[in-house]
Design a protein that fits this description.
This protein is an alpha/beta fold. The chain has a single domain, classed as NAD(P)-binding Rossmann-like Domain (Rossmann fold, 3-Layer(aba) Sandwich), CATH 3.40.50.720. Strands 3-2-1-4-5-6-7 form a seven-stranded parallel sheet, with helices on both faces. Helix 1 links the parallel strand 1 and strand 2. Helix 3 runs parallel beside helix 4. InterPro entries: NAD(P)-bd_dom_sf (IPR036291), Sc_DH/Rdtase_CS (IPR020904), SDR_fam (IPR002347).
């Protein structure tokens, strides 16, 4: 199919994985409203298509790709689509991820592997593909990896999540060193507890104690998706042109707080 909305695309697109909902959707909207072309890479077809339709209706440049970040062929095809519509990629935001909350002795090998596949292998595959294409194009670019405060500080019953997110932290630093000389900056974001539809549901069903979490957080509240998106925008912008290899916490002071 001919890419009908290929226009003004010479600068490339911002590719956002997991961009169909939650924090990812807010990041997509932040970049689109600032005039960037966006590619929403999500496994949920309905969510990806809905956000894309909403953005196009508002006059923004957007395209959806439905697939898995842990599938090498899907990743390659997503970046092919970015080239077909928007002349390539300028920024990759590795936002796709899954949670893991289970006592270690009850954690199945399948769930352990699923966390690795999505949270770690997905970041690797998408980063490698973005790196290959940016290096080939000779253009500078950026990669922003969504880690977590639980990739920086430990928590019980979260061995799969903490392990994979700490791997994202080290991947961020390694790629920043490896690709600095070719003009690719790589940084990370480590959110704490953020108000999303998922956290609202967990609070509503009693699986998350919001009051206890707020007491533990120095700033006394959950974060917002907009606060995470604003940081992503800053790290992708020329305002952060001398920043690479950093993982910035957006956790209200949680990871700095050594007191319970």
């Amino acid at each position: 199919m001919e890419p009908a909305n290929k226009h003004g695309s010479e600068c490339g697109a911002v590719v956002i994985t997991g961009g169909g909902s939650g924090i990812g959707r807010t990041i997509v909207e932040r970049f689109a409203q600032a005039g960037e072309a966006v590619l929403i890479f999500d496994h949920n077809e309905a969510a990806a298509e809905q956000v894309t339709a909403d953005l196009k209706a508002a006059g923004h440049r957007a395209v959806a790709f439905v697939g898995s970040v842990s599938n090498e062929d899907d990743v390659s095809a997503a970046f092919d689509l970015a080239e077909a519509y928007f002349d390539g990629v300028k920024t990759l935001i590795n936002n796709a991820g899954i949670s893991g909350n289970c006592p270690t002795i009850e954690l199945s090998l399948g769930e352990w592997q699923r966390n690795i596949d999505v949270n770690l292998t997905g970041v690797f595959l998408c980063s490698r593909e973005a790196g290959r294409r940016l290096i080939k194009s000779g253009k500078p670019g950026g990669i922003i990896n969504m880690a977590s405060m639980y990739g920086v500080v430990a928590a019980p019953n979260r061995i799969s999540y903490c392990s994979t997110k700490s791997g994202v932290v080290m991947m961020t630093k390694t790629l920043a060193l490896e690709w600095a000389s070719v003009g690719i900056r790589v940084n990370g974001i480590a959110p704490g507890y953020v108000h999303t539809d998922l956290t609202h549901e967990l609070i509503k069903t009693g699986r998350l104690d919001a009051e206890a979490l707020n007491r533990r957080t120095p700033l006394g509240r959950f974060g917002t998706p907009e606060e995470v998106a604003d940081l992503a925008w800053f790290l992708a912008s020329d305002q952060s042109r001398y920043i690479t290899g950093q993982v910035v916490g957006v956790d209200g002071g949680w990871s700095a707080n050594g007191y319970l």
